[in-house]
Amino acid sequence: MPLMDKLSLLIPRVLNKRGLKDEASASYVTYLACQWIDDNLPEQSMHLRVVRLADKCLFIDSDHSIASQELTQVQEHIINYLNTHEGVSIDQMMIARSRNTAN
Known about the structure:
Layout: H1 3-17, H2 21-40, E1 48-54, E2 57-62, H3 65-73, H4 75-83, E3 92-97
Parallel strand pairs: 2-3
Antiparallel strand pairs: 1-2
C-alpha cells in the first residue's frame, strides 16, 4: 500500500479520535465555498467572507448590498456544489451584512 493511501486512512481516524473531525470538515467546506465564490462571483468575492459552518448551515458575511444580492441569487448553486463533495451536507446558507458596511 503506498504511503498516501496509508495517510488517507490514518488521518480521519486520528481526527475522529482527537475530536477534530467536525472542525476539519467545516474548514474544508469553508475552503470549498471560498473557492466557489472566487471562481463564480469574481467581482463580488472581495465583499464576501465565509465565516463558518454550523448545524448544516453555511454563514457568509457581506460588506456590500450588491454582493449579498448576487450571492442570494446563486445560493442554490453553491449549496448543490458543496453537497456533491463526500461527507458534506448543507441545508441552508445565511448571508449577513457585516457591521462595518459602506453601502
